[in-house]
Structures are given as C-alpha cells and as structure tokens.
Amino acid sequence: MPDLELTEVDITQHPAVAVRYGVTSTPAIVINGRLEFLGVPRGDALLDRLRAVRA
To answer: What is the biggest distance separating any 2 CA atoms in the chain, rounded to whole angstroms?
Structure first.
C-alpha cells in the first residue's frame, strides 16, 4: 500500500493521544481516527481493515 501513511506515537510521551482515541493498552492501532485494534492483530485482519478503509 504505497499511499499508506503510518504514524507511531509513544503514549508515555503523549498521553493525550491515548485519551483521545480510547487506548487503554498497547499496542493499539487507530485507523482514520478510530480505534480499530487493541493488541497485535492477525495480519489478515489488519490487511482486511486497511483495504476496507481504502474502498
């Protein structure tokens, strides 16, 4: 996905980001401003969600 933009945030340095997205544990994945995964998702689940967002 060449047009994918990834931003990694250290929530110990930016706790307001965790509050904004409702992150209660890490790792967490937010896609387009919505908390999608807490914990490490299965690869196919992550790809499916990213593809759905692009459609």
So the answer is: 33
